[in-house]
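ok so for the tutorial part 2 we go from a plain amino acid sequence to predicted structure tokens. step 1 is just haveing the sequence, like this:
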Amino acid sequence: MNLPNTLTVVRLILVPVFALSYFLVPEQYFYLPAVVLLLSGLTDMLDGYFARRFHEITPLGQFLDPVADKLTMFTVIICLAVRHRAILMLFLIFVVKEVALALIGLILLKSWRNSIPAKWYGKVTTILLYLLLCGVLIFPQMPEKLLFYLALIPTAFIILSFIFYLKEIIKRKDAL
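step 2 — the prediction. this is what the tokens look like for a chain of 176 residues:
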């Protein structure tokens, strides 16, 4: 297993570590799950960098990396939604987008091997999600109304990225 794939596996391992730290530590120690989330984000950036820089892109990595991304975001968003109702809308839109894209992609492209690689709008959405979710962890007493308004920004990007990825899937299908 190469370094990028190892970093992706580490990211997968950090998913339950995040959930456990979120639910087991008192609110005044929420910087601990925030550190886990930031470490996950760092391994995400590094695995992509190393894979491209050292030409270590593998089919396993192409499959595992988006799985780790989605599993991380799903877990963090659902954990936060348990305590913050303002995150519920973000969670629902995130799940609908991911399930719809997965199903549409599988149906139209016939295989995950034909999947669309990450685009700038997906990366911006991920960065905005990380910023929001880390902010909620660092400021757990944030007023729900403020959190709701802050969540609108990544929510809008989730919707936009859904539209753009859908266009990419259709374009890829037509090219197959």
